[in-house]
Hints:
Distance between the termini: 40 Å
Radius of gyration: 18 Å
Structural class: mainly alpha
Order of helices and strands: HHHHEEHHHHEEEEHHE
CATH class: Mainly Alpha
Strand order of the largest sheet: 6-5-7
Number of domains: 1
CATH topology: Cytochrome Bc1 Complex, Chain D, domain 2
Amino acid sequence: xxxxxxxxxxxxxxxxxxxxxxxxxxxxxxxxxxxxxxxxxxxxxxxxxxxxxxxxxxxxxxxxxxxxxxxxxxxxxxxxxxxxxxxxxxxxxxxxxxxxxxxxxxxxxxxxxxxxxxxxxxxxxxxxxxxxxxxxxxxxxxxxxxxxxxxxxxxxxxxxxxxxxxxxxxxxxxxxxxxxxxxxxxxxxxxxxxxxxxxxxxxxxxxxxxxxxxxxxxxxxxxxxxxxxxxxxxxxxxxxxxxxxxxxxx
Length: 250
């Protein structure tokens, strides 16, 4: 496990050293970049506002709000930049959305938000906004790095009827066109995002499932271990890059 951790660190360090990494924003049109930059134009800020209301709202049998435990949401600065991460109470690596639901079912004694629900995306975006501009800093514990290692293997694995891997598009062919769109480098530093194509917000797992469907592969359900592992690897690949949440994409 120790060797694995060292190898992953070397991969991440090498990527950072070369620093040919580009955020997805660099592959967008100037009008879409402007939409992301300006909070008064960024449609995702509607979800952030909804998340702000939920942060203050009492919920569940415990009658507690998020603020009752965590105080002002500004105190969450730095939290989103370290997820996915190993959670001792869950005994596994979880995403930020899953961590929010653990608080909801455990501390608030309320029903968990459904994946991709407006409430979960809003709270996740509201918390992540507090870390905007901070470098992604995935934890270096053994469990989180093991998840990243599994995700790295999945990233390089050919799948689906088109027999393509993530790496073939996003490492070997970034900057080229696919169905009229420019292929980015797959640095997930702006999620949850507002996509003009969706006309709404979505999680990284929704985007990953879109890609899997695009290559005609079997698509795992939201929350599946392989999706969490892929998220852990993408976070390590993007280590040191600035968090841009809430992002806007075409």
